[in-house]
Amino acid sequence: MRFTLSTNWNNDRLDDGAAIADEALALGFDALELGFRTQPEQIAGFKSRLDQMPVDSIHAYCPVPLGAPSGHPELHRLASRDADERALARILLKKTLACAKDLGAKVVVTHAGYADLDGWLVNLDSEVLRKLLTLKDGKADPDRPVYVKYLAKAMARRRKRGRKLLDLFRKELDVLLPDFQKAGVTLALENLPRLEGFPNVEEAEALMKDYADAPVRLWFDTGHARVRECHKWSDGATAIAMRVADHVCGMHLNDVKDFHDDHRQPGWGKVDFAALAPLAKRDILRVFEPHAPVTADELKASLATIRKLWE
Predict the structure, then answer these.
(1) Is the preceding omega at residue 266 within 30 degrees of 0, hence cis?
(2) Is the CB of residue 302 less than 8 Å from the CB of residue 266?
(3) Burial 77-111 (b: 16+ CB within 10 A, else e)
């Protein structure tokens, strides 16, 4: 079973792409995902190691766009009600696609965007809901009556706003996907750890039905799904994974404790990786995407654990 490491883990620490690839190889990984923190000057080093560490996927936007203060997957959002925002996202996705073609990657992972939950009188976004979730002692309780009340209102608004955004997003895909088709690269839409995250599972299923023969699929982030489950923004992470399994082309393997997007190594938190084995054993990409605080020893041990669990 092949496992990939996201360069987001070490490309702030190592300037040379070749050194980043060498470190991933030494830890036992089989390939790389170029993360959205990749700098233009690191690309040559990655190319020099393609024979040993191929690039399986690229996380938009990559490399970091000229003039951007830092790398971020949501510098501009293709799923947005703002036409200028969508136009800028198209430009950056096409640049990421060019990078994928140059390095032989077959998948571009993207954060599509968010269905805005602001309102004239009541804002119902994820941050507001998280405050309602929290008790005086700092603990989170998703069964707290005030949270349940406002979550129901937020879910209703989310469904309505999502339907409008879906129509705009289809038009953007109609423009972009011919370029991906020509390049032989798949655009993968990642599940996001906020109620506003687009597409949610219902929207994703609608898109997969509409674009069944087009190069667009879903990307399943284990930590993001767990965060959504804990907040009751969606069904359980495993149930969601099985529901969309036929449309998934890759996974980000991240672990979390509960309510926060910790991006730690598998085995650290509460994600049930054993239950995700049926998805992991499909013909998909499996990408470790830890944040920088994870140590090399922790990551190496985590990789060994997941190999044993799934192989």
Answers:
(1) no
(2) yes
(3) bbbbeeeebbebbbebbebbbebbbebebbbbbbb
Burial class (CB in 10 A: 0-12, 13-18, 19+), 179: middle
As for how many domains the chain has, the answer is 1
- The dihedral built from the CA positions of residue 231, 235, 237 and 241, taken in this order, carries a sign that is negative
Residue 302 pairs in a beta bridge with none
In a domain, residue 33? The reply is yes
Length of the chain: 311
Give 155-164's long-range contacts (Cβ < 8 A, gap of 24+): 155/195, 155/233, 157/117, 157/119, 157/124, 158/115, 158/117, 158/195, 158/196, 158/200, 161/115, 161/116, 161/117, 162/115, 162/198, 162/199, 162/200, 162/202, 162/203, 164/81
The CATH number that applies at residue 273 is 3.20.20.150
In a domain, 120, yes or no: no
Q: Is residue 126 part of a domain?
A: no
Examine residue 159 and state whether it is found in any structural domain, yes or no: no
pLDDT tens string 52-91: 999 999 999 999 998 888 899 999 999 999 999 999 999 9
Contact call for residues 252 and 6 (beta carbons, < 8 A): yes
Amino acid, res. 163: R
* 206 neighbors 234 (Cβ within 8 angstroms): no
User: Any idea what DSSP says for residue 64?
Assistant: P
Containing structural domain, residue 196: 4-115+166-310
276 three-state secondary structure? coil
The token duo for 39 is 């700098």
Contact 74, 26 (CB under 8 A): no
Q: φ and ψ at 169, to 5 degrees?
A: -65, -40
Phi, psi of 250 (to 5 degrees): -175, 165
pLDDT per residue as tens digits for the range 216-243 = 999 999 999 999 999 999 999 999 999 9
Residue 100 φ/ψ, nearest 5 degrees? -60, -45
